[in-house]
Amino acid sequence: MNFLKILKKTVIDSQIYVSVVGTLFAVFFMKEQNTFRFPTILLIFITYFSGYIYTKYQYTKHFFKILVLNAAAGIICSFLIIHNHNEIRLLKWFIIVVLGLLYNSFFLDVYIRKIPLLKVFYVGLVWALVNCWLTLPEFSIPIFLISFFFITALVLPFDIRDMESDTVQTFPKLIGIQNTKYIAYILVFISMLIAIFYLQLMYSTAFFLSGIITFILIYFSENKRDDTYFSFWIETCSALPFLFLLILEYF
Known about the structure:
The protein is mainly α. The two termini are 35 Å apart. The chain contains twelve helices and no strands. It has one domain.
Protein backbone atom coordinates (compact mmCIF):
# COMPACT_ATOMS: atom_id res chain seq x y z
CA MET A 1 0.00 0.00 0.00
CA ASN A 2 2.81 2.40 0.86
CA PHE A 3 4.45 1.58 -2.46
CA LEU A 4 1.24 2.50 -4.32
CA LYS A 5 1.00 5.79 -2.42
CA ILE A 6 4.62 6.62 -3.25
CA LEU A 7 4.04 5.67 -6.89
CA LYS A 8 0.97 7.90 -7.07
CA LYS A 9 2.78 10.84 -5.50
CA THR A 10 5.99 10.57 -7.55
CA VAL A 11 4.56 9.60 -10.93
CA ILE A 12 0.90 10.63 -11.13
CA ASP A 13 0.63 13.64 -8.82
CA SER A 14 3.93 15.03 -10.11
CA GLN A 15 2.38 15.35 -13.60
CA ILE A 16 4.95 12.96 -15.07
CA TYR A 17 2.31 10.41 -16.00
CA VAL A 18 0.00 12.73 -17.92
CA SER A 19 3.06 14.09 -19.74
CA VAL A 20 4.14 10.57 -20.71
CA VAL A 21 0.71 9.50 -22.00
CA GLY A 22 0.33 12.79 -23.87
CA THR A 23 3.69 12.22 -25.50
CA LEU A 24 2.80 8.64 -26.45
CA PHE A 25 -0.42 9.90 -28.02
CA ALA A 26 1.68 12.20 -30.21
CA VAL A 27 4.16 9.41 -30.98
CA PHE A 28 1.29 7.29 -32.32
CA PHE A 29 0.56 9.87 -35.01
CA MET A 30 4.23 10.58 -35.63
CA LYS A 31 4.79 6.92 -36.46
CA GLU A 32 1.73 6.85 -38.68
CA GLN A 33 2.98 9.92 -40.56
CA ASN A 34 6.58 8.68 -40.58
CA THR A 35 7.86 11.75 -38.70
CA PHE A 36 9.14 9.88 -35.63
CA ARG A 37 12.22 11.59 -34.14
CA PHE A 38 13.61 11.37 -30.60
CA PRO A 39 14.33 15.12 -30.25
CA THR A 40 10.68 15.82 -31.07
CA ILE A 41 9.54 13.28 -28.47
CA LEU A 42 11.71 14.97 -25.85
CA LEU A 43 10.39 18.37 -26.92
CA ILE A 44 6.77 17.26 -26.50
CA PHE A 45 7.38 15.63 -23.11
CA ILE A 46 9.17 18.67 -21.69
CA THR A 47 6.45 20.97 -23.03
CA TYR A 48 3.66 18.93 -21.48
CA PHE A 49 5.49 18.43 -18.19
CA SER A 50 6.46 22.06 -17.68
CA GLY A 51 2.97 23.19 -18.67
CA TYR A 52 1.16 20.88 -16.27
CA ILE A 53 3.37 21.59 -13.27
CA TYR A 54 3.00 25.32 -13.96
CA THR A 55 -0.79 24.97 -13.96
CA LYS A 56 -0.80 22.88 -10.79
CA TYR A 57 1.76 24.72 -8.65
CA GLN A 58 1.57 28.38 -9.74
CA TYR A 59 -0.49 29.34 -6.69
CA THR A 60 1.65 27.47 -4.16
CA LYS A 61 4.80 28.22 -2.18
CA HIS A 62 6.76 26.45 -4.91
CA PHE A 63 5.87 29.17 -7.42
CA PHE A 64 9.40 30.59 -7.80
CA LYS A 65 10.89 27.13 -8.28
CA ILE A 66 8.27 26.41 -10.93
CA LEU A 67 9.12 29.62 -12.78
CA VAL A 68 12.82 28.71 -12.78
CA LEU A 69 12.02 25.18 -13.96
CA ASN A 70 9.79 26.50 -16.74
CA ALA A 71 12.43 28.97 -17.85
CA ALA A 72 14.97 26.14 -18.05
CA ALA A 73 12.46 24.00 -19.92
CA GLY A 74 11.86 26.82 -22.39
CA ILE A 75 15.59 27.15 -23.06
CA ILE A 76 15.97 23.40 -23.55
CA CYS A 77 12.97 23.22 -25.89
CA SER A 78 14.22 26.19 -27.92
CA PHE A 79 17.62 24.53 -28.24
CA LEU A 80 16.05 21.24 -29.34
CA ILE A 81 14.00 22.99 -32.02
CA ILE A 82 16.79 25.22 -33.32
CA HIS A 83 19.30 22.37 -33.37
CA ASN A 84 17.02 19.75 -34.91
CA HIS A 85 14.32 21.62 -36.81
CA ASN A 86 13.76 25.17 -38.07
CA GLU A 87 12.32 28.55 -37.14
CA ILE A 88 8.83 27.53 -38.32
CA ARG A 89 8.77 24.71 -35.76
CA LEU A 90 9.92 27.21 -33.12
CA LEU A 91 7.01 29.53 -33.99
CA LYS A 92 4.52 26.64 -33.83
CA TRP A 93 5.85 25.60 -30.43
CA PHE A 94 5.71 29.17 -29.12
CA ILE A 95 2.07 29.58 -30.19
CA ILE A 96 1.11 26.31 -28.45
CA VAL A 97 2.91 27.43 -25.27
CA VAL A 98 1.02 30.75 -25.32
CA LEU A 99 -2.27 28.88 -25.74
CA GLY A 100 -1.30 26.80 -22.70
CA LEU A 101 -0.65 29.94 -20.65
CA LEU A 102 -4.04 31.34 -21.63
CA TYR A 103 -5.67 28.24 -20.17
CA ASN A 104 -4.78 29.12 -16.59
CA SER A 105 -2.27 31.75 -15.50
CA PHE A 106 -2.00 33.85 -12.36
CA PHE A 107 -1.34 37.08 -14.28
CA LEU A 108 -4.64 36.95 -16.20
CA ASP A 109 -7.90 38.33 -14.79
CA VAL A 110 -9.91 36.02 -17.04
CA TYR A 111 -8.48 32.79 -18.38
CA ILE A 112 -9.94 29.86 -20.28
CA ARG A 113 -10.46 27.66 -17.25
CA LYS A 114 -12.85 30.27 -15.80
CA ILE A 115 -15.08 30.32 -18.89
CA PRO A 116 -18.08 27.97 -18.51
CA LEU A 117 -18.05 24.81 -20.69
CA LEU A 118 -14.99 25.90 -22.69
CA LYS A 119 -12.28 24.02 -20.78
CA VAL A 120 -12.89 20.57 -22.31
CA PHE A 121 -12.71 21.89 -25.88
CA TYR A 122 -9.66 24.01 -25.18
CA VAL A 123 -7.63 21.11 -23.80
CA GLY A 124 -8.65 19.08 -26.85
CA LEU A 125 -7.52 21.94 -29.08
CA VAL A 126 -4.05 22.25 -27.56
CA TRP A 127 -3.37 18.51 -27.59
CA ALA A 128 -4.66 18.28 -31.16
CA LEU A 129 -2.33 21.07 -32.32
CA VAL A 130 0.65 19.19 -30.90
CA ASN A 131 -0.31 16.09 -32.92
CA CYS A 132 -1.42 17.64 -36.20
CA TRP A 133 0.72 20.76 -36.46
CA LEU A 134 3.80 20.84 -34.26
CA THR A 135 5.13 17.44 -35.37
CA LEU A 136 4.16 17.65 -39.05
CA PRO A 137 5.41 19.78 -41.98
CA GLU A 138 1.80 20.75 -42.79
CA PHE A 139 -1.39 21.00 -40.78
CA SER A 140 -3.32 17.70 -40.91
CA ILE A 141 -7.08 18.20 -40.57
CA PRO A 142 -7.90 14.47 -40.05
CA ILE A 143 -5.31 14.10 -37.27
CA PHE A 144 -6.55 17.33 -35.73
CA LEU A 145 -10.14 16.06 -35.67
CA ILE A 146 -9.21 12.60 -34.36
CA SER A 147 -7.15 14.12 -31.56
CA PHE A 148 -9.58 16.93 -30.77
CA PHE A 149 -12.66 14.73 -30.39
CA PHE A 150 -10.82 11.99 -28.51
CA ILE A 151 -9.09 14.25 -25.97
CA THR A 152 -12.20 16.39 -25.47
CA ALA A 153 -14.08 13.20 -24.62
CA LEU A 154 -11.40 12.24 -22.08
CA VAL A 155 -11.61 15.58 -20.30
CA LEU A 156 -15.33 15.16 -19.62
CA PRO A 157 -14.85 12.39 -16.98
CA PHE A 158 -12.61 14.79 -15.06
CA ASP A 159 -15.48 17.27 -15.01
CA ILE A 160 -17.61 14.46 -13.61
CA ARG A 161 -14.99 13.89 -10.90
CA ASP A 162 -14.83 17.61 -10.03
CA MET A 163 -18.51 18.52 -10.41
CA GLU A 164 -18.99 19.15 -6.70
CA SER A 165 -15.88 21.31 -6.34
CA ASP A 166 -15.88 23.22 -9.63
CA THR A 167 -16.80 26.88 -9.25
CA VAL A 168 -17.62 27.35 -12.95
CA GLN A 169 -20.39 25.76 -15.00
CA THR A 170 -19.41 22.39 -16.50
CA PHE A 171 -21.32 19.83 -18.54
CA PRO A 172 -22.03 17.46 -15.61
CA LYS A 173 -23.38 20.35 -13.52
CA LEU A 174 -25.46 21.64 -16.43
CA ILE A 175 -26.89 18.47 -18.00
CA GLY A 176 -26.02 15.73 -15.50
CA ILE A 177 -23.52 12.89 -15.40
CA GLN A 178 -25.32 10.52 -17.76
CA ASN A 179 -25.83 13.10 -20.51
CA THR A 180 -22.19 14.13 -20.16
CA LYS A 181 -21.22 10.52 -20.75
CA TYR A 182 -23.41 10.45 -23.88
CA ILE A 183 -21.50 13.44 -25.24
CA ALA A 184 -18.20 11.69 -24.49
CA TYR A 185 -19.41 8.51 -26.25
CA ILE A 186 -20.34 10.51 -29.34
CA LEU A 187 -16.98 12.31 -29.43
CA VAL A 188 -15.03 9.05 -29.11
CA PHE A 189 -17.20 7.44 -31.80
CA ILE A 190 -16.58 10.33 -34.21
CA SER A 191 -12.82 10.14 -33.62
CA MET A 192 -12.92 6.39 -34.25
CA LEU A 193 -14.81 6.85 -37.53
CA ILE A 194 -12.32 9.42 -38.80
CA ALA A 195 -9.42 7.19 -37.76
CA ILE A 196 -10.91 4.21 -39.63
CA PHE A 197 -11.28 6.19 -42.85
CA TYR A 198 -8.01 8.12 -42.65
CA LEU A 199 -5.31 6.17 -40.81
CA GLN A 200 -3.44 3.17 -42.17
CA LEU A 201 -5.05 -0.18 -41.31
CA MET A 202 -2.79 -1.14 -38.40
CA TYR A 203 -3.11 2.33 -36.89
CA SER A 204 -6.87 2.53 -37.36
CA THR A 205 -7.19 -0.91 -35.74
CA ALA A 206 -5.12 0.21 -32.77
CA PHE A 207 -7.23 3.33 -32.42
CA PHE A 208 -10.47 1.35 -32.72
CA LEU A 209 -9.41 -0.99 -29.91
CA SER A 210 -8.45 2.03 -27.81
CA GLY A 211 -11.88 3.50 -28.41
CA ILE A 212 -13.58 0.39 -27.06
CA ILE A 213 -11.58 0.51 -23.83
CA THR A 214 -12.26 4.22 -23.58
CA PHE A 215 -16.03 3.63 -23.89
CA ILE A 216 -15.85 1.20 -20.98
CA LEU A 217 -13.83 3.52 -18.75
CA ILE A 218 -16.13 6.46 -19.47
CA TYR A 219 -19.14 4.27 -18.64
CA PHE A 220 -17.79 3.58 -15.14
CA SER A 221 -16.82 7.21 -14.46
CA GLU A 222 -18.60 8.50 -11.36
CA ASN A 223 -17.83 11.54 -9.20
CA LYS A 224 -17.52 9.35 -6.10
CA ARG A 225 -14.75 7.21 -7.56
CA ASP A 226 -11.23 7.47 -6.20
CA ASP A 227 -9.05 10.05 -7.93
CA THR A 228 -6.72 7.30 -9.16
CA TYR A 229 -9.45 6.04 -11.46
CA PHE A 230 -9.27 9.31 -13.37
CA SER A 231 -5.63 10.32 -12.96
CA PHE A 232 -4.41 6.85 -13.94
CA TRP A 233 -7.04 4.85 -15.84
CA ILE A 234 -8.72 7.67 -17.76
CA GLU A 235 -5.35 9.30 -18.47
CA THR A 236 -4.04 5.97 -19.77
CA CYS A 237 -6.59 6.11 -22.62
CA SER A 238 -4.32 8.65 -24.33
CA ALA A 239 -1.53 6.08 -24.46
CA LEU A 240 -3.73 3.17 -25.60
CA PRO A 241 -3.39 3.80 -29.37
CA PHE A 242 0.39 3.57 -29.10
CA LEU A 243 0.27 0.55 -26.76
CA PHE A 244 -2.15 -1.34 -29.02
CA LEU A 245 0.05 -0.43 -31.97
CA LEU A 246 3.04 -2.05 -30.26
CA ILE A 247 0.99 -5.20 -29.66
CA LEU A 248 -0.20 -5.35 -33.29
CA GLU A 249 3.33 -4.79 -34.61
CA TYR A 250 4.65 -7.57 -32.37
CA PHE A 251 2.11 -10.10 -33.60
